[in-house]
Specification:
Elements: H1 5-27, H2 33-54, H3 60-86, H4 92-108, H5 113-136, H6 145-170, H7 183-220, H8 230-247, E1 251-258, H9 261-268, H10 270-286, E2 293-298, E3 301-307, H11 311-328, E4 339-346, H12 352-368, E5 374-376
Helix pairs in contact: 1-2, 1-7, 2-3, 2-7, 3-4, 3-5, 4-5, 5-6, 6-7, 9-10, 10-11
The chain binds guanosine-5'-triphosphate.
Protein name: diguanylate cyclase
Pfam families: GGDEF
InterPro entries: Diguanylate_Cyclase (IPR050469), GGDEF_dom (IPR000160), Nucleotide_cyclase (IPR029787), Rev_trsase/Diguanyl_cyclase (IPR043128)
């Protein structure tokens, strides 16, 4: 079997075009910014190889330069996809320079074969290395498998590209022409094809992970406030309580209910009522430590589960929270907002049902006693042999 370079390049171009066409069908046009960058990368890569193949038949200098610009832009788009998925990445400035200078230097120095092959290959290899850097840095981040896949594929491609640059620039007689049946050209065409498909595949897995995360976030959070919903809270608090039982850690559950919230809706409208709930949740969340849980229990009722905390600490938190809520929520009539709460502490052997029941009873007493206060729940009483709690 002979591997003809021209055939391999046509196959590479078709393959990348197929990926470029398949991506929008699989991922959708209106998906995340990261997915859109990857689609742009695939299209740009395909156009680059199309221009490269068309160049000798049309206008070699113009189309070859255009090809460099498209292929370079494709790596720039990969870098942008990595930033969209992983947050701020290093090397953005270098990438911007490489995007401009690679095709510019190639086009201006087109008449010198050694220059243009050396320049373009080093420029493209630098861009691949910058995508690798964006995936692997900062080193403290855990590298997910898709990142490894793209990293290894692009690192391999960068090595072959540097090899071609060195041969073209410094050993020009050994490497006369890009389309010549030189073993390096055959290897480059094959590695290009495999690595590009693998990196696109890696990025598709990234998109899938992102979609999965977004779905889980949606399923776990309350749409209005962004706090945990009751289902997700139940799952996470069971884990927290199991841990507390294992280490005999204390903890506290607080059930809070905004006072006279119906009046807020009736006087100022439902939209303002929603805004008040959102602000209340924001204040609640910002008062908690890492590891504590906040839940929208339902309507204008919220819950917080404090890990490794005593009731005294919960009382202090409650006071701070009450002041913060009063400061954060100012209703149009000048009235401020307050809440009632039931505080249920636990040491061990607590179940969520028991905590909620005790906190709810204390909350009921707080409402009955005139609202705007937090009352402590009766201590936990273990069930008796008949299954009922023993008298306190
Ligand atoms: N704007 C808005 N209102 C809500 C939402 N969920 C529940 N409510 C309203 O919250 C109000 C709760 O009223 P009540 O249960 O009478 O409680 P309250 O007026 O706070 O009175 P107390 O709890 O006894 O102090 C109702 O008017 C509900 O319509 C929501 O998501 N958005």
């Amino acid at each position: 079997m002979s591997l003809d370079v021209q055939t391999l390049l046509v196959s590479l171009m078709l393959c990348v075009f197929a990926v470029a066409l398949a991506l929008p069908a699989v991922v959708g046009w209106r998906s995340s910014a990261g997915a859109r960058w990857i689609q742009a990368s695939a299209v740009s890569q395909a156009l680059g190889w199309l221009a490269f193949l068309a160049a000798p038949r049309l206008h070699d200098q113009f189309f070859s330069t255009l090809s460099m610009a498209f292929i370079g832009a494709s790596f720039g788009a990969m870098w942008a996809a990595a930033r969209a998925w992983l947050g701020p990445r290093p090397g953005g400035r270098w990438m911007a320079w490489a995007l401009v200078l690679t095709p510019l230097g190639y086009g201006l120095g087109f008449d010198s074969y050694a220059w243009r092959v050396g320049w373009s290959n080093f420029g493209l290899a630098l861009q691949m290395a910058l995508v690798c850097l964006a995936l692997a840095w900062p080193a403290a981040e855990r590298m997910r498998p898709w990142r490894w896949l793209v990293f290894v594929a692009l690192a391999a491609l960068a090595c072959v590209t540097v090899g071609r640059g060195v041969l073209g620039a410094f050993f020009t007689e050994l490497y006369p022409y890009y389309r010549a049946p030189h073993p390096l050209n055959v290897a480059a065409a094959l590695v290009n094809q495999i690595c590009l498909v693998l990196s696109m595949l890696g990025f598709m897995v990234a998109w899938h992970e992102e979609a999965d995360r977004a779905l889980r976030r949606l399923a776990d959070t309350d749409g209005l406030t962004g706090l945990l919903n009751r289902r997700a809270f139940t799952v996470r608090s069971e884990a927290l309580l199991a841990q507390a039982r294992r280490h005999a850690d204390p903890g506290v559950f607080i059930l809070l209910d905004i006072d006279h919230f119906k009046q807020v809706n009736d006087r100022h409208g439902h939209a303002l009522g929603d805004e008040v709930l959102r602000t209340f949740a924001k204040v609640l969340k910002s008062s908690l430590r890492r590891g504590d849980l906040a839940v929208r229990w339902g309507g204008e009722e919220f819950g917080i589960l404090l890990a490794r905390a005593e009731v005294d600490a919960a009382r202090r938190l409650d006071q701070r929270l009450r002041t913060a809520v009063k400061q954060a929520v100012r209703l149009p009539g000048g009235e401020s907002l307050d809440y009632s709460a039931g505080i249920a502490g636990f040491r061990e052997a607590a179940t969520l049902d028991d905590l909620v029941r005790r906190a709810d009873q204390a909350l009921y007493r707080a409402k009955a006693a005139g609202r705007a206060r937090s009352l402590e729940a009766a201590p936990f009483s273990p069930p008796t042999a008949e299954g009922r709690p023993s008298p306190a």
